[in-house]
């Protein structure tokens, strides 16, 4: 095994541990922090099913964003579903074997996803640059994450279409990592760049606004149930037995 | 009237260009040391305020899921940036919801996140300096906690929660607004926000009985402190003392009279409003709500019906059960609390009220959804009932009802500009500017349909609109309560009822 391989294998496990540990820690903290009061926003669903549908409509359809701003919604939807397609396209690097139909659709899904991601990010970046109110509220970190994702998508498309990488080597390497049985890393610099950028994203994720990915399920204004006048249930606050602040 | 140039209304709501700092001089009066201490807060800004503030901040993060989640997950998409009535009215960029939230988030990042500790500039983090504290005080007192922004946020991030938390943290280092604290102290001392003593209240109730007798020839009772009554009515204290509020109180009395139900108000708990919510203090809220529970127990009532008050309806509907529940000593067949609109509509639907709609024929009515009713509660026991119950009540009592533009009603309603503890003379300029989108929408239906009555179910809305609409050449006489309409349409003694 080359020193380069050793370095990348180590970095991968470190990055993955930070991502997983950080993500789970944040989610655990969202989950365990108590809600003093029921603050569900309109229309407060009266049942668990209604609430689940409501949260799902925000997580899957970006319904509230659609009502708020159709232009952002178009870009965001294009980007996020492109991302979903790309994750699908990369399944072969984590799970193998995959069913026959996977091989038949993966190319189409991958190409579509790649284009959607690039177009979506371009759209969202354009808003940040040229839309005055959005530019006003943007910090460096807001641009950074878009550029990082763009670079990941760009290098990905590059090794697919332009400087084609040896995908058998990539697959061997990736499956080795997933099976905790590391194999040598491909020596292709474009692939390694693509891979490195993903590691940066993994490490960055739990410390950033990317946590909206998990946080969307924990927003009390959406995930609570409006049963506050029920005689059978009573929402108990963490201050139930405290006398004053 | 304050010397303020208001734009000429043309019925269109325009999103303005940003003017950073346009309202940085709106600084609501600070509370006196004596008042602060009366509420259990430090009298003045404590010496180590920064340290204390961060300590309190940490505590709020640990006990309030909303704040914990909202600090982390905003992606700066910009969906909320054009949704706040104060931004539309003042043009100040810091009145864009996300920018207001970021005043808190930048401190959060600096003290509670790795990125903010290591690279504050890159992630928009900032030390909690005196300057930042000033911004907090200024701009968290330019949020009426109306929750309109949260409707359009992909994650439901609610600036109201953030402004409440910010005010709570500031209170705990000795910095809070005079207006809210004064009112809370009055409730503690006299039982109501206006500081009306019991004898004056009794006088008002007697006066109302005479008024109604003179106008209708019928003896309608307006009882106070009557033990053994079936219903305890909890109304905002403005209903006892202000116009047009009192006309709704007259209406409640007529409804109870027709229902044949004995009722009473309490001089001890003569206030539905609960400003503990505005200052974000759970314990203040609970203390105020406790008075109502104590009064209900003492009088041995079976049910609690509440009057027209927006934020208080949120506290009553959504918080009471947590704050001071359970209410198991009341008749469990009725919701606790029950809104007077629910009570009246139910009575009408059961044929218990005889109504003469033509009594309101001179009125062309539109309805303003009050923010806390629309976005923080429900009515009638079904989703969206808070929109339908008041409208059904208006349709049942008036022949002429017109909706304002779709983007300005129901869950998208615009705040009156005076909610959230900002209904004070020292924020008059903010209040006048904040009403702009609602004034435009109202102007549009006044022009197109001749609307001359703005029906409300909120004491703050009523006070705010009567004061600020005249700046836009809309006469204060258009403002009124729903139960003013109900009261005027009731034919006393007209219905054969069984209760």
Outline the secondary-structure elements:
The complex is a heterodimer of chains A (245) and B (499).
Chain A: H1 3-32, H2 48-61, H3 63-68, H4 70-89, H5 100-130, H6 132-136, H7 140-161, H8 167-178, H9 189-204, H10 212-215, H11 220-223
Helix pairs in contact in A: 1-9, 4-5, 5-7, 7-9
Chain B: H1 33-38, H2 49-63, H3 65-73, H4 85-90, H5 97-112, H6 114-118, H7 120-123, H8 130-139, H9 148-152, H10 159-171, H11 178-190, H12 198-216, E1 231-234, H13 238-241, H14 245-259, E2 263-264, H15 282-299, E3 303-306, H16 310-324, E4 338-339, H17 340-349, E5 365-367, H18 371-376, H19 385-397, H20 428-434, H21 436-449, E6 453-456, H22 459-468, E7 479-481, H23 482-489
Parallel strand pairs in B: 1-2, 1-3, 3-4, 5-6, 6-7
Total number of strands of chain B: 7
Number of domains of chain B: 2
How many structural domains of chain A?
A: 1
CATH 2nd-level architecture of chain A: Up-down Bundle
Helix content of chain A: 55-70%
Strand portion of chain B, in percent?
under 5%
CATH homologous superfamily designation of chain A: Transmembrane di-heme cytochromes, Chain C
Q: Based on DSSP secondary structure assignment, what is the total number of beta strands of chain A?
A: 0
Poorly predicted residue ranges of chain B: none
H/E element order of chain A = HHHHHHHHHHH
Average pLDDT confidence of chain A is 94
Radius of gyration of chain A: 22 Å
| Strand proportion of chain A | under 5%
How far is it from the N-terminal to the C-terminal residue of chain B, by CA?
A: 49 Å
Number of helices of chain A: 11
